[in-house]
Design goal:
CATH architecture: 6 Propeller
Number of helices: 2
Strand order of the largest sheet: 1-24-23-22-21
Order of helices and strands: HEEEEEEEEEEHEEEEEEEEEEEEEEEEE
CATH superfamily: TolB, C-terminal domain
Largest sheet: 5 strands, mixed
Length: 339
C-alpha cells in the first residue's frame, strides 16, 4: 500500500511538473526568412583533472582568450552548493587558469562577459550577484548580495514559511533576483538583465551607482517575462524578452523604442556593426539588420542528442563569427555565417 501511494504521488508530481525544456525549445513553424548553412566547429576544451559541464556563459577578451562560465562539479547547485566555475583558454584553446575559484558569489552559473577594458564580469543566477574582476584576477566590484543560507534554511525549512502563491518577489533597489546578463554603454554605464524574477533592466553608472530601472512582470508594454540576455551598441540596448518571444529595444537611457519579433524565443542577443543576432533554445540563430528586419537564419546544434537549451548564450566577435554556449550540449561551438 505504501509503495502504491508513493508511486501515485510521483505520477501526480510528474503530471503537474513542466517539461524539462518548457523554458526554451520553441516548437514553432519554420521561420519565414531564408535558411542558410553555417560552419559549426565544436571546440576541444580540455582541463587537466576537470570536466567542462554546461557552458552557460562564453566571452572573449582582447587577446582572443576564451572565458567559459560552466555549471560543473558534483556538489549541487542550490542553497549553499555550487555549480559555477570560470575557466580561461588561450587562442590555441589551451587551458590557462580558473578565475575566482571558491568565490562566495559562485553558485549557479549563468553568464560571463568581458568588457572593452578586459575586466571579466561574472553573472551568477544562484547567488543573485554580478562580480567584476579586473584583468589581474582581483575582484573590483560586486553588485547584489548572496542570500544567506542559514536565513533561508531557518525560515523555509525549520519554520515552514512559503511565498504567497501566485505572488512574485518585490524588485528592490540594489538587489537582483536570478540575474542573467550584463552589457555596457559607450560611457561605461552598466546594464544588468535582472532576469528571471525581477523582470527588469537596470542601468548603473560606471562606479555602480544605481541610475534607473525599467520593467515589471507581464506580457504588455513596459513588461518582461524572463529577461534572459542583453546587448548594447550602436546607440541602442537590446533586451531578450524570452517568454514573450520578442526583443525590446531601448536607447542608452532606457527609453523604450520598439519591439523585434518573429524570431522564436530569444535566449541570447548580440549586436555587431552590421547585424543583430538572436539565438533560440532550439538551436536556431537569426540574423537581422539594425532595423530588426530578418535577413536569414541557421539551424545549429543538431545531431548531438538534444532538442532544447542548445543555444544558451552567444558572443559575437565579428559580423559573421559567433561563439555559442549551451546548457545541454556541454560544449562551446564557433559558428560562422556566410558573408
Amino acid at each position: 500500500m505504501k509503495r502504491l501511494a508513493v508511486t501515485l504521488g510521483l505520477l501526480v508530481l510528474a503530471a503537474s511538473s513542466p517539461p524539462v525544456f518548457a523554458q526554451g525549445g520553441g516548437g514553432a513553424a519554420p521561420p519565414a526568412g531564408r535558411q542558410v548553412q553555417v560552419t559549426e566547429k565544436i571546440l576541444p576544451l580540455r582541463i587537466p583533472g576537470e570536466t567542462i559541464g554546461e557552458t552557460e556563459g562564453v566571452s572573449l577578451n582582447s587577446a582572443g582568450h576564451l572565458f567559459v562560465f560552466s555549471r560543473t562539479g558534483w556538489s549541487g547547485s542550490s542553497r549553499g552548493g555550487n555549480a559555477a566555475r570560470v575557466f580561461e583558454f588561450d587562442k590555441n584553446l589551451k587551458f590557462v587558469k580558473e578565475w575566482i575559484p571558491n568565490a562566495y558569489g559562485l553558485s549557479f552559473a549563468h553568464g560571463v562577459r568581458v568588457d572593452p577594458k578586459d575586466n571579466v564580469w561574472v553573472v551568477d543566477e544562484g547567488s543573485n550577484m554580478i562580480i567584476k574582476v579586473d584583468p589581474t584576477g582581483l575582484v573590483a566590484m560586486v553588485l547584489g548580495r548572496k542570500p544567506e543560507s542559514i536565513d533561508w534554511w531557518e525560515e523555509h525549512v525549520e519554520h515552514g514559511v512559503h511565498e504567497p502563491k501566485g505572488e512574485r518577489p518585490k524588485a528592490l533597489k540594489g538587489t537582483y533576483n536570478r540575474p542573467t546578463d550584463v552589457a555596457w554603454g559607450p560611457d561605461g554605464s552598466i546594464f544588468v538583465a535582472d532576469g528571471y524574477n525581477n523582470s527588469r533592466v537596470v542601468k548603473l553608472a560606471p562606479d555602480g551607482t544605481w541610475l534607473k530601472e525599467y520593467g515589471s512582470y507581464g506580457n504588455g508594454d513596459g513588461q518582461f517575462n524572463t529577461v534572459h540576455s542583453i546587448a548594447a551598441g550602436y546607440g541602442h540596448v537590446y533586451v531578450a524578452d524570452r517568454a514573450n518571444r520578442r526583443i525590446q529595444v531601448f536607447d542608452y537611457d532606457l527609453n523604450f523604442e520598439r519591439y523585434i519579433s518573429g524570431i522564436g524565443m530569444p535566449w541570447a542577443v548580440q549586436v555587431t556593426p552590421k547585424y543583430i543576432y538572436s539565438g533560440d533554445g532550439d538551436g536556431k540563430i537569426y540574423r537581422l539588420d539594425h532595423d530588426g528586419k530578418l535577413i536569414d537564419w541557421a539551424q545549429t546544434g543538431m545531431g548531438q542528442g538534444q532538442t532544447g537549451c542548445i543555444v544558451h548564450t552567444l558572443q559575437a566577435v565579428s559580423d559573421t563569427e559567433l561563439y555559442r554556449g549551451s546548457c545541454t550540449l556541454w560544449n562551446v561551438a564557433r559558428i560562422t555565417f556566410p558573408n
